[in-house]
Amino acid sequence: MAQNEAGVALVAGGAGFIGSHLCRALVDQGYEVLCLDNLQTARPSNLRLLEALPNFTFVEADIVNPLPQAVLERADRITRIYNLACAASPPQYQADPEHTMLTNVVGTNHLLRLAEKTGARFLLTSTSEVYGDPEVHPQAEGYRGWVSCTGPRACYDEGKRAAEALTFDYARMNRAEVRVARIFNTYGPQMHPDDGRVVSNLICQALSGRDITVYGDGSQTRSFCYVSDMVDALMRLMESDINPMEPVNLGNPTEFTVNELLEKVLVATGVEGRVTYNPLPQDDPRRRRPDISRAKAVLGWEPTVPLEDGLARTSAWFAEELGVELAQPEMQEPLRARA
Amino acid sequence: MAQNEAGVALVAGGAGFIGSHLCRALVDQGYEVLCLDNLQTARPSNLRLLEALPNFTFVEADIVNPLPQAVLERADRITRIYNLACAASPPQYQADPEHTMLTNVVGTNHLLRLAEKTGARFLLTSTSEVYGDPEVHPQAEGYRGWVSCTGPRACYDEGKRAAEALTFDYARMNRAEVRVARIFNTYGPQMHPDDGRVVSNLICQALSGRDITVYGDGSQTRSFCYVSDMVDALMRLMESDINPMEPVNLGNPTEFTVNELLEKVLVATGVEGRVTYNPLPQDDPRRRRPDISRAKAVLGWEPTVPLEDGLARTSAWFAEELGVELAQPEMQEPLRARA
């Protein structure tokens, strides 16, 4: 790698969905990027896209273990550490809950120690899951959440809360300069088709002609942020001079029901889908929407990509991935989901 | 150690306040006791008391590290694992918040892996702190709490929530047989005089003739369980056939304000104290009281030692420790605290 002026940005989880977009944007901004990923959920095709980039190095590593030699070798040039490492969809993070918890606590701690040692700035990607199944809408950062620490989502939700606690303690003890983002639902190209998240589920089911599955009655709401908006926000947060003790919600505050999302997916894919309604999984939040006042005020940021546009781009990408020809959405009338 | 029929009970944190009482009770019940403690907060005098017991072995070890040889040597005879390891008072657990978090997550995980490997039953001592600064009174186990994951108590509160999540995941995955106790304020002989907890603070200040410090205006309430009641509850919970996915509140539901406690301490110590009121620390809960319906129903347990009796025994013990002669409480009239 050439020795760029911006130095090295370490991206843990950089081969994942948001991580791979972030790596590309960091390269574009002049960083050398060192991407660590255990390839637990990352798609090989994401990695192929990344490995074609200049100033990009991939190392297969699990941050639960001591950091690899490639990190130690570059330690004096690392200026930014982004921690995006953790499976984020319930079927994936529940497959090995012990590993999910250790990724968030031990893995985050390894990266924080690196930040302490190198003086690099550290950004934790936390999650809207720290709010659990919230009792207030929208959620501002001061809301303490309604999280079950005994349920099947706890390994992730409580793991992220523990990772936040650890990160803020490094800041409180002046051990590291930190930023904490609470990421709400994000979607876009390079999502995993099988990760069980609602956007990818609906698009892939529609494109593959399978029955479309909605959990619950579809009246639960979500907000969906397109990935380019999210990456922009993460980089702004990292470079901002925000009070490091303040977590920042990042997401799109425009709220849609799952049924509304479904309708837009059917338009974007040009598919007439058959819908089946399944019971809600345990602890699935009924509703979640970010209050992004802090991000607006401190980062000058808000999402810019409308859901229709983002779904069109995402559907086009999934269609190519799955080898499906996409009907021209202009040619189609919006279709009603059938119960 | 003789090879007792009950087998070996491992007690992590066994040299601490509750731990040392538990070790003694387990020896009394016929267990060989293997006590691990890093001596971070344990008093050497507790250890001296314990080391006089038969069938008792102490090993200085920190459960954040891989378990010591003494554990591995006895692995095939370990039948019970009690995890009481973690500094529990804010000044102590805040001194090294990273270590507090790792004790709860990595340390608990080491013990859970031992339980998985040996088939021993595992009991986690969680805490009323998982309820944070609660919005409902009293707190039943289904209450999800009001905990800040960004504040200075988070290393402990979120650490314990994470430890619970991990423990319940071992049960959910059928990896270990577990029990989770949520311990509310407990007091008694062998408390640390300087741990910043309200009972020991008040008694020690009264006995040493210092000004007595109350944080806030003293109207915040607490419930106080005498240590013999708590140890009885922990052992009943361990031996019960409760649904392992259910945490159990253990504590005394009788509520006192800190000012009422102060008055009883002045009676128990026979001291006329000067009281100064200091600001409440950040995130200090205003009020907390256990709903112990589950413990009553499943364990047939409730506290039996009245606060006056417990304070008398505790004051007598502290007086001996501090080399102070205790005035006869019968001789004294209750004294009013002065603002």
UniProtKB/TrEMBL annotation, chains A, B:
Names of required cofactors: NAD(+)
Compartments, as annotated in UniProt: Golgi apparatus membrane; Golgi apparatus, Golgi stack membrane
SUPFAM superfamilies, per the entry: NAD(P)-binding Rossmann-fold domains (SSF51735)
Family annotation (InterPro entries): Epimerase_deHydtase, NAD(P)-bd_dom_sf, UXS-like
Domain NAD-dependent epimerase/dehydratase: 9-251
Keyword Transmembrane on entry: yes
One GO term describing the cellular component: cytoplasm
Bilayer disposition of the protein: Single-pass type II membrane protein
Pfam families: Epimerase (PF01370)
Molecular function GO terms recorded: NAD+ binding; UDP-glucuronate decarboxylase activity
Keyword Glycoprotein (UniProt): yes
Keywords: Decarboxylase, Glycoprotein, Golgi apparatus, Lyase, Membrane, NAD, Signal-anchor, Transmembrane, Transmembrane helix
Biological processes, Gene Ontology terms: D-xylose metabolic process; UDP-D-xylose biosynthetic process
Designated name of the protein: SDR family oxidoreductase
Species per Swiss-Prot/TrEMBL record: Sphingomonas desiccabilis
Lineage per the UniProt record: Bacteria, Pseudomonadati, Pseudomonadota, Alphaproteobacteria, Sphingomonadales
